[in-house]
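Input record (Table S2, row 341):
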Amino acid sequence: MAMVSMRQLLDEAAKGGYGVGAFNVNNMEQIQAIMEAARETKSPVIVQASRGARGYTNDRFLYHLMLAATELYPEIPIALHQDHGNSPETCISAIEMGFTSVMMDGSLMPDGKTPADFEYNVRVTREVVEIAHARGVTVEGELGCLGGIEDGHGADVDALAHLTDPDEAVEFVERTGIDALAVAIGTSHGAYKFTKKPTGEVLVMSRIEEINRKLPNTHLVMHGSSSVPKELIDMINKYGGKIKETYGVPVEEIQRGIRHGVRKINVDTDNRLAMTAAVRKVLFEKPEEFDLRGYMKPAREAMKEVVKARMISFGQAGNAGYAPIPLEQMAQKYREQPVTA
Ligand SMILES: [Zn+2]
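Output record (zinc ion complex):
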């Protein structure tokens, strides 16, 4: 199956009342782990690349690995998404390469650090929507700021001081015409999200419910949504790692979000932890090992297991069986419903 728009995956998810994990990739083994998990659970998938990942892989390599995935897994609907585009130029270069979805993160200035104002965010996001929709490509926007920094991206602000405002969200969606909205509800990027098991005061799930009431037809996106399983942290530390005590977003809270309009859930840290733990275990137990397949195979397997578990708990498992809508047809739909605000 050719790559499909992320919009189609999210529309299907809304119909079925489930969420779709968006997993970050930087190399072949991660793509293979996701695709095997998708096949075993019959899940549609969103594979996403940050700017850092595009730089690391030289994105032509990444793109061609994804083409291989579409050939080898023809039964799986796949969307390829630019995670946290920092400027229209970044999004346009992704679209030109063949990404079927982009995030224009205008909540931050192009430096990826400084919080931007609302009018700037509307302007750059709308600009990307016009270019992307003309080609049937999906656009995710963000309002409010997450805490933490990942791949050099992030404001590292106090997450609770920058929650998404529900009324602003309505205006933002109307004026930009985005397909999906990333909301800030107190989460952070990276492994260090919460210093104790999060309560409703630090992980403000009620905010998602409020936004969903005002925007029932907008697909919501949760960033920074790794669960940071204690057993993976413990395993890393057991085999020589040094990761401080930390807590992520419990899977039950994500499921609560899915009941209130969350359709895309970004997961990166959990996969990094799983692979690192597996590599450490092999190198600790077999210090004589120097064949990289000796540790990359278990690492790939460990990531596959995490991805499978998320696919099952988000509800996307068993939902790969639909026909692709060509991007030209998506473009036609957008032409019929132009943004007028
Ligand atoms: Zn993010």
